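Reminder to self: tokens first, then the designed residues, so the page reads top to bottom the way the pipeline ran.
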């Protein structure tokens, strides 16, 4: 049975390359590649992309047989080609009528990683920004795209060496991320195409999304103007604090395509913080009573937000700012009733609520206050019956606790792409939690993971624009 499963996996990977299965299965004995000083992963005929070393300004590629073209030089049989090469540049290896392979040199300061593929991968790969640590002062400047074999095929290094955060594809040709409180949109070559600044200070790092009609929605954390503006004060006397308390609020900021602010909305204007914040009190002066950490347009004129310190998800109607439903947290008049199996419990400290095309909702349940490992939950929403039905959830036996951060995507084929929140790896798992691809970053982690939306070919071409290679083979 195990041999049968391995055979099927190899056949599927060969088919993904457009090769006959018999060709791929025969290839390990017929052809192989290696690179000096290094190549990762080891050669397999169905793996198209490889990370290579180019210490000393060159790389030597060895081919076990021909005909093959390496970096523009043709070999009729076994041989090697030495090619001048610097970080980011690519060597293309072409076996006419069989396959094309892409070898790209990693920079010396590239984040350490290890990739393990153990099953059939449904995503095209991952977009990540490894560079956060709870135990060390690190500042990794890279945004990286890994393919479905766990190989880095695209990256961008921040010019000033600072750590970027919240990278995501807004579409197949645009990547967004934030640096130092400013949101930048980039083309695949890393060129900035738009930027957005908060009206009252830096935009918050947690999320930034597109809205219909070339509009965008971001987030600020702002201190309410108490006591100077009495209506900005919050009564937290039930917590043993002041009846005129200054708190940090979550403020939504809508922009037009030119970066102008066209609408703002503050969370604490619409809820009773003293009641709805049940488990995250005592957070210090001007405390962060909401901690909004995700935004999602629902396709129906509303935005769905996750508020970690309220242990709840809210839907806000953009036309008038009314909260139309709430999921989780304290029971309010707008709350949906959760229908789930016995023992399901509740969610806490959650991140990344997302609305799927069918109207269902997924979220990353950190369970930080529950003392359990995180899980990804899928809810079916019936807004007429005012219910949220638990359709399923998935955990990962390798993860015992999630302090912060994290997200997950439910793929059309049923697998999940997951960043388990403050843990040092990102992964794709099956619906029963079995990992099929894991990329481990050792002592650092990525705030989130995003599935690739851009085709691999477009990512390779963008890298070639950024890192052109004009030199010919020398041996």
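Designed residues (475 positions):
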């Amino acid at each position: 049975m195990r041999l049968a499963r391995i055979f099927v996996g190899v056949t599927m990977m060969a088919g993904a390359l457009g090769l006959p299965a018999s060709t791929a299965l025969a290839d390990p004995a017929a052809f192989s590649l290696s690179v000096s000083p290094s190549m990762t992963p080891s050669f397999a005929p169905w793996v198209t992309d490889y990370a290579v070393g180019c210490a000393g300004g060159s790389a030597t590629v060895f081919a076990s047989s021909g005909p093959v073209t390496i970096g523009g030089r043709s070999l009729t049989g076994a041989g090697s080609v030495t090619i001048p090469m610097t970080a980011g540049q690519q060597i293309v290896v072409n076996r006419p009528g069989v396959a094309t392979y892409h070898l790209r040199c990693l920079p010396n300061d590239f984040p350490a990683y290890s990739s393990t593929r153990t099953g059939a991968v449904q995503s095209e790969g991952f977009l990540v920004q490894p560079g956060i640590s709870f135990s060390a002062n690190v500042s990794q400047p890279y945004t990286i795209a890994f393919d479905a074999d766990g190989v880095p095929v695209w990256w961008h290094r921040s010019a000033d060496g600072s750590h970027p955060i919240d990278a995501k594809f807004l579409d197949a040709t645009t990547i967004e991320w934030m640096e130092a409180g400013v949101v930048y949109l980039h083309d695949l070559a890393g060129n900035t195409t738009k930027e957005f600044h908060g009206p009252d200070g830096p935009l918050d790092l947690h999320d930034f999304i597109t809205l219909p009609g070339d509009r965008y929605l971001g987030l600020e954390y702002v201190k309410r103007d108490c006591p100077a503006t009495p209506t900005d004060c919050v009564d937290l006397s039930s917590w043993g604090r002041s009846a005129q308390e200054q708190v940090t609020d979550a403020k939504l900021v809508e922009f037009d395509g030119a970066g102008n602010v066209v609408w703002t909305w503050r969370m604490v204007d619409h809820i009773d913080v003293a009641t709805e914040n049940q488990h995250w009190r005592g957070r210090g002066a001007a405390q962060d009573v909401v901690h909004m950490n995700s935004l999602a347009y629902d396709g129906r004129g509303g935005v769905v937000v996750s508020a970690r310190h309220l242990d709840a998800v809210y839907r806000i109607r953009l036309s008038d700012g009314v909260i139309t439903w709430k999921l989780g947290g304290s029971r309010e008049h707008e709350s949906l009733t959760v229908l789930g199996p016995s023992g399901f419990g509740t969610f806490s400290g959650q991140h990344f609520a997302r609305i799927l095309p069918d109207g269902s909702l997924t979220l990353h349940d950190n369970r930080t206050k529950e003392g359990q490992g995180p899980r990804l939950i899928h809810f079916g929403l019936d807004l007429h019956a005012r219910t949220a039905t638990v359709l399923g959830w998935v955990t990962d036996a390798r993860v015992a606790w999630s302090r912060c951060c994290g997200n997950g995507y439910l793929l059309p084929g049923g697998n999940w792409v997951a960043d388990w929140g403050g843990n040092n790896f990102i992964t794709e798992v099956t619906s029963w939690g079995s990992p099929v691809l894991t990329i481990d970053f050792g002592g650092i982690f990525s705030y989130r993971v995003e599935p690739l939306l851009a085709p691999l070919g477009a990512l390779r071409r963008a890298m070639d624009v950024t890192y052109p290679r004009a030199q010919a083979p020398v041996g």
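The radius of gyration is 25 Å.
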